[in-house]
Amino acid sequence: MFKKILIANRGEIALRVIRTCKEMGIKTVAVYSTADAESLHVKFADEAVCIGPPSSSESYLKMSNIIAAAEITNADAIHPGYGFLSENAKFSKICEEHNIKFIGASPEMIERMGDKASAKATMKEAGVPCVPGSEGILQSYEQTEMLAKEMGFPVMLKATAGGGGKGMRAVWKAENLKAAWESARQEAKAAFGNDGMYLEKLIEEPRHIEIQIVGDSRGKACHLSERDCSIQRRHQKLTEETPSPFMTDELRNEMGLAAVRAAEYIKYEGAGTIEFLVDKHRNFYFMEMNTRIQVEHPITEQVIDFDLIREQIMVAAGIPISGKNYTPKLHSIECRINAEDPYNDFRPSPGKITTLHAPGGHGVRLDTHVYSGYTIPPNYDSMIAKLITTAQTREEAINKMKRALDEFVIEGIKTTIPFHRQLMDHPDYLAGNYTTKFMESFKMEAPVEE
Length: 450
Known about the structure:
The chain is of the alpha+beta class. It folds into 3 domains: 4-103, Rossmann fold (3-Layer(aba) Sandwich), CATH 3.40.50; 132-201, 2-Layer Sandwich (Dna Ligase, domain 1); 207-441, ATP-grasp fold, B domain (D-amino Acid Aminotransferase, Chain A, domain 1). It has helices spanning 11-23, 40-44, 63-72, 89-97, 107-114, 116-125, 141-151, 177-192, 249-265, 297-304, 308-316, 394-407, 417-423, 427-430, 438-441; strands at 4-7, 27-33, 47-52, 77-79, 101-102, 155-159, 169-171, 197-201, 207-215, 221-228, 232-233, 236-237, 239-242, 270-278, 284-290, 331-338, 340-341, 347-348, 351-352, 355-357, 364-368, 375-376, 383-391, 409-411. Helix 4 links the parallel strand 4 and strand 5 (101-102). Helix 4 (89-97) runs antiparallel to helix 5 and helix 12 packs antiparallel against helix 13. The longest helix is centred in the middle third of the chain and has 17 residues, at 249-265. The radius of gyration is 22 Å and the shape is globular. The mean pLDDT is 95.
């Protein structure tokens, strides 16, 4: 087992990893930018190393600084969390070269599954259902036009190096294809330095359902059931739940087995998710694979009583998985609390937290790195907390979430707590009747005057 792990991340996920390491008797090293000197992950790690100024490119994405921090502290492994360098093949390779265990996917696995076109080709080989679309990267607009006509509209243009909705365009009519092709390529080039595109059939009334998998160094994998991540804004998840209210036992079994087949086919090592789009007829299609821990992993942990970070560390140390596929016995919901103003088009709201009262009680979990007096820097993602409730049924989990949101007080900045409170009363949400298009028609009710 590792003696010391450096966490190459910040905020709540860094603190989350530190907690499990401490429980396993493993020493921890936090890294931080000058903007994060007062963050809780810095305070609770055994050691902390400043790796640069606020800009991510000069700190959390600066590979040489992170490797140097690992070497001067004698860390024998690096946990990358999510985001930043967690799915960076070059960083995984550099760790390998420096004899530091990267607690994540191998460089080859990241490259194979990180490029959406090659990932789709691999999944087809594994016998996993894929969305009908182009074979590999599109070579010209003329090829795109021909394929779109063959598939039938609507279609979806996607950047092969994409993420966060960049370089994606839904096209409903043939006459709009050319403009969408040009704008998507420009956006992808600006965001990723790569304007490679591919084309897929647009799935109508889709749900975004992912299967959590874990694979070990012996080529065995198991799944830990599903998470429904359909409520999104601009392709960013807002809330997640497990089990999905749309799921049937038969569909869960089919999707779980497909995800395990995918993981074992590529001999995947570590925790990851196989992401699917599921249409209104409950047909499911492979969308992408995330070769890292997910933001929403706590809801899976809650319903099957399983520490996913611990499992990541154990697998990285060469210990085999249990090999058991799990079915949730409870219901869990996560609300991502962002420093944003939901009454003002979710505008970011960094600044100093003057008051914070955390909710508690049975079945309530709060993952956060902030506290009263903490200043949220403007340099990073706006998520400041994850509020998770768990209960015997979906209705009970929703009622628990309403109560916890009412208890959750954050003053000094704007947060998305009011959005989540309104969401929990929305009739379509209560009925489990939602798709990835839900937010297109959601309207915030005016704030109550105090």
